[in-house]
Write a structure and sequence with these properties.
It comes from Gemmata obscuriglobus. The protein is α/β, with parallel strands linked by helices and 487 residues long. It is built from 13 helices and 7 strands. It has a domain of 95 residues. The protein has a 5-stranded mixed beta sheet, with helices on both faces. Strands 1-2 form a two-stranded antiparallel ribbon.
């Protein structure tokens, strides 16, 4: 510490002990000042964490407290409520009738004159009803016969496809109720009894899950291999297996979704999911993805927007940088929505609009890296290091600027985890990842989940070829567009 000059009003011949005491007090004051400065930094950091919400961090909206102001209401568009022009009309589905009643008016409602004839195009009013469902029971009477020569008793074997004691459709319904409807074993047992008149114990439901997982093993492996060969959105969320922390990973391609549960959130789990795929990966900025080349990675802009809002909310030297970056993001997405609507060509977007926004965005990042806010500076320098990965969507077809597809795919699993508290065993995890793969893929392809599960279980019992989630060549997504020189 630099010594403070002695004030002129103090005598110059102070005793050494007094001078030493004054120096000790000066050192104490300096130490206290350093402590206060450190506490101020800590308090500012805690205040920033306290002010985190769904708009400036990765916290879900459900965690927002009452002090968080909701988003301002949008200004009225002047249009009437309901479906707008161009919106697909939603009508009640007309099913093939089992019983037809023909209704004709007898007299005119205006003058009461008798009416005759037929209407070539009568209006149709259908009443849909669910019939009483009762189980179809097939009984095998296995005779036990004794050999008259050696005395051995031989019992006729049950056919292999009947050995489980329940048909393929029963097994498929049990898997769908637990995996798609997220119901517990006891609730599924009650539903089978109430809806179908079929008593099934909760332990039997669990056993049917395990056999379904075995039937879906080749289906899930083929789906995982397919996603590795296509651009995919990748994300992960926490899971519980037994009493240990695990992680549920997902890869979402255009038409196929693959799930995996692993005990780690590290590189090995990502390699199991993507296996060195040379396709584009759309991810957030979690460090496990930093090994990916920037030309094969798209960083999620939805996460970036929350980071920019966090810069603004800190209210320090980094706030103007956050506002400038957020303005660039708003301008970029305004043009991108036109690309998605088909009113702007992707080549024009990349060559003109994205190039202009990218130049300003890079300039703001450079200024942010040198600003007085350490956190804002760290984020800006990190983005500069992966800056080409922010613009992959502008030059590669089939790639979105956000990772929303993966987050939407995980939402069902997160809700399931909150009610089931994860899985108890390795076998349970295999069922979860495989049934989620089938559910998400069938939904994206518009296929009937129950019919697919029934076919998979039937093929597993009979040794036939299992159904596949892989689209036929005519339905495959288009190849990636060539790289544009504009971005």
């Amino acid at each position: 510490m630099t010594s403070v000059p002695q004030p002129p009003e103090l005598p110059s011949d102070l005793p050494p002990a007094v001078v030493a005491y004054i120096r000790a007090l000066e050192a104490t004051v300096a130490q206290l000042q350093a402590t206060v400065a450190a506490l101020q930094v800590t308090v500012a950091d805690l205040q920033t964490r306290l002010n985190q919400n769904s708009s400036n961090s990765s916290k879900p909206p459900s965690s927002d407290g009452p002090q968080v102001k909701p988003a301002p209401p949008k200004s009225p568009s002047g249009k009437r409520r309901g479906g707008q022009s161009g919106h697909p009309k939603a009508e009640r589905t007309v099913l093939p009738p089992d019983t037809v009643h023909t209704l004709k008016p007898d007299t005119c409602r205006g003058c009461a004159c008798p009416l005759t004839g037929d209407d070539p195009n009568p209006s149709i009013h259908q009443v849909h009803e669910i019939p009483v469902v009762r189980p179809q029971v097939t009984e095998y009477r296995c005779h036990r016969l004794r050999c008259p020569h050696c005395g051995a008793v031989t019992t006729a074997p049950v056919p292999a496809d009947a050995a489980p004691g329940y048909g393929p459709r029963v097994q498929a319904v049990a898997a769908m109720l637990t995996g798609s409807c997220r119901l517990g074993k006891r609730v599924v047992s009650q539903l089978f009894d109430d809806l179908f008149g079929l008593p099934i114990r909760p332990a039997t439901v669990c056993k049917l899950q395990h056999t379904t997982a075995a039937a879906l093993a080749p289906v899930a492996e083929a789906a995982l291999a397919y996603t590795r060969g296509h651009p995919a959105n990748v994300d992960e969320t926490c899971w519980t297996q037994g009493r240990q922390r695990a992680w549920l990973w997902v890869a979402v391609s255009t038409s196929v979704v693959a799930f995996l549960i692993r005990a780690t959130r590290g590189r090995s789990a990502f390699d199991d999911l993507r296996d060195g795929s040379a396709q584009v990966h759309t991810t957030d900025r979690y460090p496990v993805y930093t090994h990916l080349p920037v030309h094969r990675r798209q960083v999620c802009w939805a996460h970036l927007r929350r980071d920019f809002q966090a810069m603004i909310d800190r209210g320090n030297d980094g706030s103007p940088i956050g506002a400038a970056l957020l303005a660039c993001s708003d301008e970029l997405f305004g043009h991108w929505f036109r690309v998605r609507d088909g009113t702007l060509a992707r080549s024009t977007f990349a060559r003109v609009y994205a190039r202009a926004v990218r130049a300003r965005f890079r300039t703001h990042l450079g200024h942010g890296g040198r600003c007085g806010c350490p956190k804002t500076g760290a984020v800006c320098r990190e983005l500069l290091a992966v800056e080409p990965a922010l613009w992959t969507f502008a030059r590669v077809g089939g790639v979105e600027p956000t990772n929303n597809a993966a987050e939407r795919a995980l939402r069902h699993a997160v809700c399931w985890r909150k009610t089931s508290y994860g899985t108890d065993s390795e076998r349970g995890s295999r069922f979860v990842e495989r049934i989620l793969t089938v559910l998400a893929s069938c939904r994206r392809q518009g296929r009937n989940v129950l019919a697919f599960l029934t076919d998979a279980v039937t093929a597993h019992r009979t040794g036939a070829k299992p159904p596949t989630l892989i689209p036929v060549p005519a339905q495959q997504p288009p190849m990636m567009n060539p790289t544009f020189a504009g971005c």
